Amino acid sequence: MFSSSSSSSSSSLSAGIEQYDAIVIGAGHNGLTCACYLAKAGLQVLVLEQYHSIGGMTITEEITLSGFRSDIHAYGYQLANFSPAPKELELDKYGFELVYPDPSISHLFPNGGIISMYRDVKKTVKSIEKYSKKDAQTWEKMFHNYLDKAKHKIVYSINNPPSTSHRTLSSQHLTRENGLSDQTSHNDEYRFNLQSLR
Asked: Is the pTM of this model over 0.70?
């Protein structure tokens, strides 16, 4: 069962099932995925969402002009191809389809300039080169480092539960405390994944 605070009240909830095995707060793609797996396991699940629409970071809305639809911070679901969830939940039966725009991201500058990220790495490099050859080279290096080092970690983390081993967690903590981790690599991963093109 799904309830949005903008359209439902506590009285309307009490009219339905009064007892749930699990309550999921937030109907973003992660919350919905969690709720689906719980429901498939036979649990009675209630999903609560305060926004007027479900989907979280996968929502598409008209935010600029009528007829022009834009994603609303659709960042997290770019890793969907690494996750087994769409196939396991048979989302294609319900109309699920990933759209791959090209360019995928464009950043406009006040002076009319633009930097775009394309599915073709070389086209992206050329787009950045218009403003800085050094930045273009750095971006390309970070991209290849991401493919070589980070991608398999992401795939593993999506498809496996987090470690609860005290020894593993302690080792990770000591590594950070002693400065033994590859700080440069971590910084590059952060910059590549989360920083804008500005």
From this structure: no
Q: What CATH number should be reported for the domain holding residue 79? A: 3.50.50.60
Number of separate domains in the chain: 2
Same domain, 157 and 194: yes
Q: For residues 71 and 58, give the distance between their C-alpha atoms in angstroms, rounded to a whole number.
A: 7
- pLDDT 10s digit of each residue in the chain, 198 long? 656 654 444 444 545 667 999 999 999 988 999 999 999 999 999 999 999 988 887 888 888 889 988 877 765 566 677 788 889 999 999 998 877 889 988 899 999 999 999 999 999 999 999 999 999 999 999 888 878 777 777 778 777 777 766 555 555 544 444 444 454 555 665 555 555 444
At which residue do the structure tokens 């009319």 appear? 112
Of the candidates 96, 98, 95, 93, the residue with the CA atom closest to the CA atom of residue 81: 98
Give the separation between CA 175 and CA 183, rounded to whole angstroms.
Answer: 11
